[in-house]
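Researcher: Here's a chain I'd like modeled. Treat it as a single chain, no partners, no ligands.
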Amino acid sequence: MTDLDPSSASAPRTSHPFMGAGATFAFVALIATMTWVGLARVESQTRVLEIGEEIKQLSDQRSQLLQRLRRLKTERAYLRRPERIKEQAHSLLGMVPLDPSRRQKIRLDPKGRETP
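Model: Modeled as a single isolated chain. Structure tokens:
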């Protein structure tokens, strides 16, 4: 028997029902869709990480600003102490407390002029 013998020919090869031309397109479309979904997920995770980093930076900046505010409030409280103001007025400006005997009352007459 030779290879050309019609009796020895094998049965015609049948294709798998899912491997037609439409199935190849569907398979490629599925792979493309899965790739797109994967890329979208990676992009969204990257964006979440970027936003998280921005939140961390803003939180650190807020902490620094709050700390600076506390220092400024403390400094203001120190600078506004009555004892310090009295000392500065005397040493820098030569001011002294007013002698009670030098106080005068000022009265206004009905026409709005001052009278001693």
